[in-house]
Amino acid sequence: MKNINKINGLLFVALAFALTGAHAQPAAKFPTKPVRIIVAFPPGSSTDIVARVVGERLTEIWGHNVIVENRPGASGNIGTQAALRANPDGHTLFMNSSAIAVNVSLYAKPGYTMQEIAPILQGPSTPNLITVHPSVGAKTLQELIALAKTKPLSYGSSGTGTTPHLDMELLFRTLAKVDITHVPYNPAAAATAVVANQVPVGSTSMPPAVPHVKAGRLRPIAVTSIKRSGVLPDVPTVAESGFPGFDDGTWFSVFAPAGLPAAVVNQVNRDFTTALQSPQAKERLAALSLEFTPNTPAEFAKRLKTEVEKYAQMVKQSGARVD
User: Fold this and answer.
1) Where are the domains of the chain?
2) Which residues on neighbouring strands pair with residue 70, listed in sequence order?
3) pTM for this structure?
4) Structural contact between residues 54 and 281, judged by C-beta atoms closer than 8 angstroms
5) Alpha-carbon gap, residue 143 to 141, rounded angstroms
6) Which class for 207: exposed (0-12), middle (13-18), buried (19 or more C-beta within 10 A)?
7) Coil, strand, or helix at residue 236?
8) What are phi and psi of 161, to 5 degrees?
9) Which residues on adjacent β-strands are paired with residue 118?
10) Residue 263 confidence (pLDDT)
11) What is the DSSP string of 171-214?
12) CA-to-CA distance for 52 and 135, rounded, in angstroms?
């Protein structure tokens, strides 16, 4: 009997040790190989700038290379579709702008649904900026609207479905009741098109346009945020320019295919936040009027739902469409 009790006691100790050891095992290590970040816009776009600034720091944090891959097209839809075909293990992430929340209403078939996407982190945001070529005879938004009523004008935007496109459609067609022709570019090309006077008016997020404004190659007209930008403090807001309450901008965020384990979602959120708050990243982004406030995946998911609903209303109100 003593021997049986002794054996049972040893079995109990072994079982307890095994269970304790199982619980003590750390979560699966991430990453275990290079991480690919698919950027849904071309090189030089604000989304691309953010991805590359963060990628440099993440390579140090993770000890694995971070590869930024640009997959532009269809206002971010091509890159989103490509990313959603990847295995949801965290080794393929993607960055898109607020266009991801616009396109589900603007496009009849964007090629994805929001249910297929895991929101990880809302990254930096920026006001949008309306600019003109220096030869244009308008220095204020009201003067630009008045000019558009006397002769045909066109504007270049960051692309169909981006918030700079939607803002101009809402502002000119719906609120000011004036027709203006939309010419879609990619973000960096939209700014340089106005510099080259290929189109007289531009609407982009601030990063592609700010260097041209500071060099005198573009004249700033108005920012779309409710408050002025610290980078261009002398430029009035759209709200100050006769459209009270007008408030919009562009954000650049991190996503993954749905099904990514919660532990990996939380780690990617923390590590991206650390990278964005590094002194080098903060200095680089602040110079381009990009601001970041830390947030959790749950907070971003809630905000994203609100953004989808907001832009659905803006698409309907503005009459914007993709032919």
Assistant:
1) 35-126+251-318, 127-223
2) 39
3) 0.83
4) yes
5) 5
6) buried
7) coil
8) 95, -10
9) 256
10) 96
11) IIIIIS----EEEE--HHHHHHHHHTTSSSEEEEEHHHHHHHHH
12) 34
Extract the tokens encoding 111.
Answer: 């090629």
Crossing angle of helices 46-62/279-286, nearest 10°? 180
* Interval 245-258: pLDDT, tens: 999 999 999 999 99
DSSP 41: S
CA–CA separation, 323 and 6 (whole Å): 80
Per-residue pLDDT tens digits for 214-248: 999 999 999 999 999 999 999 999 999 999 999 99
Q: Which two tokens stand for residue 35?
A: 């991480």
Q: Which helix (H) or strand (E) holds 86?
A: none
- The per-residue pLDDT for range 170-194, each reduced to its tens digit, is 999 999 999 999 999 988 899 999 9
- Intrachain domains 35-126+251-318 and 127-223 with the same fold: yes
Structure tokens at 160: 């169909």
DSSP state, residue 237: B
CB atoms within 10 A of CB 282: 16
Within 13 Å, how many C-alpha atoms sit on residue 224's CB side?
26
Residue length, the chain? 323
Alpha-carbon distance 130 to 170, whole Å? 13
Q: What does DSSP say about strands 117-132 and 92-97: parallel, antiparallel, or unpaired? A: unpaired
CB 252 within 8 A of CB 158: no
DSSP string, 209-235: HHHHHHTTSSEEEEESSSS--SSSTTS
Question: The tokens of 257 are what?
Answer: 């295919």
Per the CATH hierarchy, to which homologous superfamily does domain 127-223 belong?
Answer: Periplasmic binding protein-like II (3.40.190.10)
Residue type for 317, please?
Q
Structure tokens at 121: 């982190």
Q: Are 99 and 161 in contact (CB under 8 A)?
A: yes
Q: Look at residue 24 in the predicted model and tell me its pLDDT.
A: 37
CA-CA distance, 186 to 167, in Å (whole number)? 16
User: Which homologous superfamily is 35-126+251-318 in?
Assistant: Bordetella uptake gene, domain 1 (3.40.190.150)
CA-based end-to-end distance of the chain:
86
